[in-house]
Amino acid sequence: MSADTQKQISGLAAIDHIRDGMKVGLGTGSTAAWFVKAIADEVKAGMKLTLVSTSNQTTHLAHSLGLEIRDINDVGKLDLCVDGADEIGEGLALIKGGGGALLREKLIWEMADRCIVIADAAKHVATLGQFALPIEVEPFAYKGTINRITDVLSEFDIAKMPILRKKSGEAFVTDGGNLIFDVACGAIHDPSGLASALKATTGVVDHGLFLDLADIALIGTDEGVKVFY
Ligand code: 5RP
């Protein structure tokens, strides 16, 4: 089974957790897109849902499918958020942000009673860190911020430089107007300590470590969808 088919079956499996009347956060990326398409089918079939989005990309997709996206500030707490991930490690610790939407994703995840992560089998790892950790940075004085991030990384025995993410040769700019620096950490042995230290670094807006946020992982495998808690 291809990775895309694994993404598709995990996205479709998340529909089993949707009930009429729910307030639902829509994630970002190719796996989340399968979920958004399945949600559009449910709404066309008559289900009533209040939907919010984690990125402009997902909002565009939702609109193209005829879905209404509400402002999170008008909706308040959500019943559920369903989103992809770049790595799913022990205890459902995640790396997210490969699509550059990590800040708005985290803002929406934190508003949800329950978060479901959907992914293909390759995302399930023993130790986080093979996927480069995205760090979202305020553009003003970013060089000083990068120096501070490098100092933090060295405290965690990570001797890697943050690399500015680019798109079509230009700096990638997030929906919120920030830069992303990716760090090829290698094994992250203390995700919780690193997450706290990065969050406390001036100029860091947020980072792609999502810890203690996911409640369920639905992972598409060649043997079907496997559920992890
Ligand atoms: C976007 C994300 C995505 O959920 C993550 O990159 C996974 O993407 P895909 O489902 O396309 O593999 O965090 O910021």
Question: Which features characterize this protein?
Answer:
15 strands; binds ribulose-5-phosphate; 31% helix; alpha/beta; 229 residues; 7 helices
Notes on the structure:
This protein has 229 residues and is an alpha/beta fold. Helix content is 31%, strand content 26%. The chain has helices spanning 3-13, 30-44, 56-64, 72-75, 102-109, 142-155, 191-199; strands at residues 23-26, 50-53, 78-83, 87-88, 94-95, 112-120, 133-137, 163-164, 166-167, 170-171, 179-183, 204-207, 209-210, 216-221, 224-228. α1 (3-13) crosses α2 (30-44). The mean pLDDT is 98. Bound molecules: ribulose-5-phosphate.
Number of strands: 15
Strand content: 25-35%
Q: State the separation between the terminal residues, measured CA to CA.
A: 24 Å
Order of helices and strands: HEHEHHEEEHEEHEEEEHEEEE
Mean pLDDT comes to 98
Q: What is the count of DSSP helices, taking H or I runs of 4+ residues?
A: 7
